[in-house]
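Q: Could you write out the predicted structure for this multi-component system? I'm mainly interested in how the pieces pack against one another.
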Amino acid sequence: MKKLLDPFTYFSGGTTLSVGLLVMAGMVAIASATGQTFRGVISLGIGDLSYLRLAGQLLARWSIFSGLLYGAGRWFSKSRIRIVDIAGNQALAKLPWLVLLLCSPIYPPEQITSDVERLQNTNLLELSSFVPSTALFVYTTIALILLVWFFAWSWRGFSIAANLRGGRAVGLYIGCYLLAEVLAGWCTHALAGSIG
Amino acid sequence: MILLKITLFLFRKQIKKSMETKKNLPNACPSCSAQLHVAALHCPTCETRIEGDYRLPTLLLLPTDDQRFVLDFILCSGSLKEMASRMGLSYPTVRNRLDDIINRLKSYEQ
């Protein structure tokens, strides 16, 4: 149980990297089958992209975030940190996204598209009459729980790999995340339309 | 008779347990938390007794767990990877612990 709640105390480097890469391969396969895409660091979108493009998007969001965290860790940590620990831990921290993708049949992309269209066609005055489906409610709840799980693992993975703790380290992590969100957002958007 | 045997067994077990109990060398005063000094040394073979005022070596100022960690580290020829494998922990976790001990030793030295 301890290993499940805090895997990075027990595993790191090559182990987390190899499992993380398998997780990411699984994510690409499911996203490709269910018609979903990767945007920014934590977002999922709807689209029909090739396997290569999806892999590019996922690798971009992972490498940008890991690279920024490694740079910040090198700058602020007094320990000799290794990129394999940072990148490996961030790869394994993507496990909640694999679970979310596996949950996508609860609220399939076609239903998301139809709900969005229905919402767009709803008059502002009639907006209160828009009743979200049970599937949307269940999926959103699961997504929120998995988002918390992702950030908990991602932060813990960074904290252990870079030997940084306390408020300053949290600030550093949030800063890296926000910057990665912008860079990865731009990158994943560009990849969605440029690589065949 | 059986009751006597059980009592004897429990008594022996208790004595064995008390003999196995490890004594931890205290390094801080329980009253004011200041660093303790060594006032007396005793040879258990010839009963020689030396009295004086000696400072504890820096490594002995570390908590017992950290002293054990340093000893294991030396016994592993300074290999953090081997330490991590033996302790069942990840490499960064072990490295972080060593860094914490280094910082603590540096603060003792100052």
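A: Regarding packing and overall arrangement: The mean pLDDT of chain A is 89.
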